[in-house]
Amino acid sequence: MLAQDCPSKQDLQNSIQQAHKLLSAQEASYLQSLRTLRKKLNLLHNSVARLPAKAKNSTCPNLDTPVNGKKLGKILFPGHEVHFLCDVGFELEGSETRQCKDSLSWSGQQPVCKDIDECLSSPCANGGTCTDEVNGFSCVCAKGWAGPDCQAPTPTFFVTTANTSPVSAGAAAASSFPLTHTSAFTRPSRCSQVQGTTHCTCEPGFTISGRDNSVCTDIDECKLFHNGQAGRLCLHTCVNTAGGYRCTCPAGYNVTRDGRNCKDIDECSTRQNNCTHEQLCINTYGGFQCVKVECPQIRNATYVKTSSLRCERNPCLVDSRTCSQAPNSVSFHYMSVVSNLSAPRVMFRVSAVRMIGDTLRFALLGSRGRRHFTVQRSDRQTGELLLTSPVQGPATLDAEVEMSELERRELLGRYITKITIFVSPYEF
């Protein structure tokens, strides 16, 4: 072996010094990571210490569902939201969304669904008097006018004709002319002869017809008052009847007390559904949906249900990068809306109750929701899911909103909210 093949003492010392430098750099990096982690833990400890003392698993008090309205959201833990909607014909007064605060009290004011006073727009024409009703109005028409909004002249229910048969002058003789009943929609007129003049009349809902004015024909109110100034005669379907009409509603609705409008049946609260114990019943306009919430399955990450609509990630192994990048939590929310809802409109809000990092980012995941939705920021800690265009039902829309928390551009956590919106086939 030649002498130049063996490293010299100086070469060995240089190699050992380089190894010392590398070890020192690794130690410094490790210590810096420990200091950063200790700083974050101290921030978390201080934020928790500032919270008011409360019992474990404490929740905000349950909120009442407004009369003539709906409440969306059942989780009462801090940071969660409850949304309110009013039935057709009612307007919301108060907070549309209320959030459970750390103090175990709700933000905003308790909403109330108040009946819309349809008479404010003066819908009764030609001197008619308007009376406001639940989810509608009625008109008392002036003499000579008829119809739901008093727009149509009163149909002629009687005629007077000169008698062609000889009658003694000054006589007060009277006679009637019966006619054979032909169908439910045509009836004989009631004619009488008084002092040489024939008077023919019809029952309400019928009008004089026929060459000799002896027939009363039913008035088809559904055609006559189909598109009045005050709106359609019936919210859904008008069925003409002999001497009148009646309104019908599609399956999943009941006719309201005014006989013209439709009110959704809540199959979930009235137990008119076939959902199993493993499923949640979601009431929709005109029906219901049975949904089963399942936690995501991600490699090297496991989840546990902390409520019926929320899954939390279990602690990760120290060296599991796949687990640490998986969502910290996945929440599920379900909403019901009518068809052709006006847009743009805020459908849902996602916010952080308290922040550990220095930045929050909001994003819309996937491609299914990008056709109808976008995400915008309303303030530093809140993102909003915005409906960008009206949707013709029936349809089911899905959107996933991601909230990411960062510190110095380093990811601290991801929180996913999956929102499913059921769109009714009808605009009510």
UniProtKB/TrEMBL annotation:
One example GO MF annotation: calcium ion binding
Keywords: Calcium, Disulfide bond, EGF-like domain, Extracellular matrix, Glycoprotein, Repeat, Secreted, Signal, Sushi
SMART domains recorded: CCP, EGF, EGF_CA
Signal recorded as keyword: yes
Protein's cellular compartments: Secreted, Extracellular space, Extracellular matrix
CDD domains: CCP, EGF_CA
Name by which UniProt lists this protein: Fibulin 7
Span of the signal peptide: none
Species assigned in the record: Cirrhinus molitorella (mud carp)
Disulfide bridge map: C86-C113, C141-C150
Keyword Lipid biosynthesis: no
A Pfam family annotated for this UniProt entry: cEGF
All copies of domain Sushi, residue ranges: 58-115
Recorded family membership: Belongs to the fibulin family.
Coiled coil location: none
InterPro entries: cEGF, EGF, EGF-like_Ca-bd_dom, EGF-type_Asp/Asn_hydroxyl_site, EGF_Ca-bd_CS, Fibulin_C, Sushi/SCR/CCP_sf, Sushi_SCR_CCP_dom
Domain EGF-like positions: 115-151, 218-263
